[in-house]
Structures are given as structure tokens and as C-alpha cells.
Model the fold of this input.
Amino acid sequence: MRSEDFKYITTKFFDNDIYTFPMTVDDLLDIQYVASRGKSTEQGAVQRILNKRRISQIRDFILEGNSFVNTFILNWTDTDNPPKIKKETLNLPLQGRRAQILDGQHRIAGMQEAVNKNPQIGKIEVLVSLCIGLNTQEAAKIFLNINSEQKPVPKSLIYDLFGEAVDDKEHAIIRATDIIEYLNSSDESPYYQAVKYPGAPRNIGLIDLAIMVNAMKPHFEKDAVFSRLKLYEIEVQKKIITNFYSAIKSIYNKSNKIWSRKTENPFIKAAGFSGAFEFLTETLMPRCQTDKNFTTDHMLKLMKLDPDDLITTSDFRTLDGKTARKNVKNFFNDCFLKDIPTSTDDYEF
Done:
């Protein structure tokens, strides 16, 4: 049986020794396996069912030349062939199902698909943190600590941290996608679990990801509104967009719960979402910046939407997309301009 010595460092977590060391992707793939909760009866089974879309994204990420700095956490379960722990090295058998994945199952699955396409990726080294013989309760403590308290950061946060947005042609798409992911996953969002991703089951999601990306992308370009108004940070951008659509949702739900009615909510359609977003960036955001106020309440005050006089899908169902989008934007502009004087006699010059 093939085995190898690894130089390691030791740490303790919940009174369990954890051995951390580098090993090749090929070796990691050889010894790991997934024990899913609800499907496997063995000790330490805590993993969730794999998400195929996420695996494909990770595969492509790796094939583009990327790797991972964070460790893969494993639980050695092969009692017949335990690791041989020496003062400076750890000797591990490197064939067969030896160690459960506690953290990193999607990354490992993505790496496996990447290796299938490019075997050279198997020679890359990654960091492994190895526990030995944890029971299910001990494994669950580690799993819950990772997945309850830590959240993935948006990919485009690197632009905020290092100021590289102006040089990356993909920045606008990445930023739009990150914000949409937030809108779909935050229970404070008016689009919570409403985004339809490619490959999703037919009844999952209300508005296509592509519709939202196409509507938002131009406004994150180098010379577009968020940049011109110096609203660069993703947290600020998320808050502005969430507040805007939350304001709309609050009024539409006062009017016969229109927001919740798929056939009448215009903002799950391309024309409605895009027309509203154009109003936000062209008219509402500059005014909110002047007022130094982007709160939902202030947006509602400025928009002056009337629950008894709202645009719905039926108002533009027979129109072409460009005309429908224009009509939605004009609806918001007309509401916004309700209190504008109709004669120059009302002005002082």
C-alpha cells in the first residue's frame, strides 16, 4: 500500500488535535469521500447534498488557473489503517476511502472535474487539516462552526479592497452577479429566493438571472452612475438597490398584494425590472445623493407612488420590450415630478 510522510503542525479545536500539512490534489482525491447526513449511517456524517451548479463554477475557477488558500478539513475514519504520528511527520496510506470531508466537499468535487479535464492540476498542492476518528457530534461541532458563522464574501469585493475595477472588463458583470446573489439570498431583500438561475427546476425562481444582469451591468461600468457619484463599495450599492425595490414592494403590497402576484408584478419581467432600474440610476440616485439620504422612507417620499394608481404587467403586455421599458421608466418619472410647478410663474429668477 502506497503511503507518504507529511510534515505537519498541530492545533487543537474543541479538544481535538488537528494536523495541518500540504498534499497534492491527486493524493487528496485518492483518500477523501463524502458522508452525507440523512444518507450515511456512519459516524461523522454531516455533509449536505452537492450542488451541481456550484461544482461547475468551481471547476471553471480552477481551470482558469486558480487554486485555494484555505484548508480542506478531513476526518480520518479508517481504523484498520490509522495515520502513524511521529514527532515531525505524519505517515498516511494514500489509496482508498480513508477520510470524510468535513469542509470543502464542493471544492473537492470541482477539483475532481478540473483534473478530469486537465490532469496536471492533480500535481498542485493544497492545505489539508486532518482530524482523526471524530464521532458525529464532534464532526458536527466543526461543521456548524464553519457553516453557521462564516459567509462567503462577494467575488467583486477585491475591486473595493484593491481598486482594480477600472482595469477589469468583467467587473460590471461580476459586480451585478454578486449583488443579485445577495438579493436572492438575503431575507431582507424584496427578491429573496426569487432569482431563476440557469439549470434551476422549472418552478424555482421568478425572474431570470440574465434579465437582472443585463439591466444592472451598464450602470457598474467605469463611467456609469455608481462611479460618477462615487458610490463604489458593494455594501453601499447593495443597500441602495435593496432599499429601492423594497420601497416599490411596500407600495405594491398595499395595492391588493400585487408584488406577490406573478401575473401582475411588473418587476419580475425584463421591462419592469430594467425600466425601474433606469429610473433609479438616472433620476432617483442623483437626488438621493443631493439630499444625502438613500433610506427606503426617503425614496418613498421622493417617488410619491400612489397605491391606487400603479403600473402592472397588464399595462405593457402587448408592447415590445423597448417601449414597455420606456413606459415603466416614464411611470416613475411622472410620479417623481408630480409636485413640479407647471408654469415658470411659480419660480423666482
About this structure: The longest helix spans residues 270-291. Residues 37-47 have pLDDT under 50 and may be disordered. The two ends are 92 Å apart (CA to CA). The chain has two domains: 3-149, 157-336.
